[in-house]
Specification:
By secondary structure, the protein is mainly beta. The chain has 2 helices and 33 strands. It holds the Pfam family Beta_helix.
Length: 360
């Protein structure tokens, strides 16, 4: 048994289904409370549930050992392995590898292939790093088809500040295909978005990752999406302009649950645009479901929905450091399409916030 250093801070009693991580260690723990949820990626198998009576316990998982198809430590090796890998195969980036993508464009991961490293094998294992120093790099890691997985990696861009260093849209991970999974990654330094879900990126699953310092003024999204849908769960967010942002276009939507938003965002945390403008008469995607999250950033509202999701807006069981719902939410949604359930306010910021091994 290995201890998982990713901690949950919620007090709600829930059943935990642990997702298997492919190699030595994972932060994966899909918390599934007995409440109505949208359909999303199913757990591969159920491994081991921890004591759910205390959500401050460290999560414990059992390792699932899978032999990688390719193990690489240089750019040339990584590029070669990805050019040969087939669906179901695994490319493992050495834990101490640092791949400089500056001037090399994008790396495409083929459909069904997993690119992984060892973030979190121990409390100090950062995992393999893929990075650029070019503030106008564009997309760095791209999904070449459905079912691509990025696991246990560090994905670093060139701008961790709020300065407008480039008008180019730089993204760490980019997909326009269904069933993308991002698990246990540290993603930071991207002027546009750490993860960008373009049109067609339906049923994405982004979980147990630390997404931070994506905060360029006017852009700066941890996760951003066009006509895409996603489950966004059990992540830590900090130093983002918006942790999550949706375009508001019909056919888009997200469920955000069990995430922790730390105190240092530079605008509101979770966002869904009104498509074409702000107001109840504008579409704000198909759905927005926000539940069981912790919001510690109080300088701005936690949740802003700038129109009316076609299927509805549902916000419940969240805990806010904000003093009231008025402080925590900025909602344009028509009253007939929104359900604001029971939420808690004026919570105290925990001293034990632990996003796992981190570079910055």
């Amino acid at each position: 048994m290995r201890k998982n250093f990713f901690k949950l801070e919620h007090n709600k009693i829930c059943k935990i289904n642990m997702l298997p991580f492919l190699f030595a260690f994972s932060f994966s723990a899909l918390v599934s409370c007995q409440q109505e949820e949208i359909n999303g990626p199913a757990a591969d198998t159920s491994i081991k549930a921890r004591d759910s009576s205390n959500f401050n316990n460290t999560l414990v998982t059992e390792a699932t050992t899978v032999t990688p198809t390719y193990t690489v430590s240089t750019y040339d090796q990584l590029k070669s392995a990805l050019s040969k890998a087939n669906s179901g195969q695994v490319v493992y980036l050495a834990d101490n590898a640092e791949i400089n993508m500056t001037g090399k464009g994008a790396l495409k991961v083929p459909a069904g292939v997993t690119l992984t490293s060892g973030r979190g094998k121990t409390s100090t294992t950062l995992g393999g790093l893929i990075y650029t120093t070019n503030v106008a790099h564009g997309n760095m890691l791209t999904a070449g088809g459905s079912g691509v997985k990025f696991v246990g990696l560090r994905v670093k861009g060139a701008n961790t500040t709020t300065s407008r260093t480039s008008s180019a849209y730089c993204r760490g991970i980019y997909s326009s295909f269904p069933n993308l999974e991002v698990d246990n990654c540290e993603i930071y330094g991207w002027n546009h978005a750490g993860v960008y879900l373009a049109d067609g990126a339906t049923n994405a699953y982004i979980h147990h990752s630390y997404i931070h310092h994506n905060q360029q003024s006017g852009l700066g999204y941890g996760i951003s999406m066009g006509k895409a849908t996603a489950k966004i769960m059990n992540n830590y967010f900090d130093y983002n302009r918006h942790a999550i942002a949706g375009s508001g276009i019909s056919g888009s939507g997200y469920e955000a649950a069990y995430n922790t938003v730390m105190p240092h965002g530079t605008e509101h945390s979770f966002d869904m645009h009104g498509y074409g403008g702000d107001g109840a008469n504008y579409i704000a995607g198909d759905y927005v479901i926000v539940h069981d999250n912790l919001f510690y950033m109080t300088a701005y509202s936690a949740i802003t929905v700038r129109g009316t999701p076609r299927e509805g807006l549902n916000i419940y069981n969240n805990k806010f450091a904000h003093k009231s719902q008025i402080d925590a939410m900025n909602i344009y949604t028509s009253t007939s399409k929104r359900v604001i359930g029971t939420n808690s306010y004026s919570i105290v910021i925990s001293a034990s916030i632990n996003p796992g091994p981190k570079s910055l």
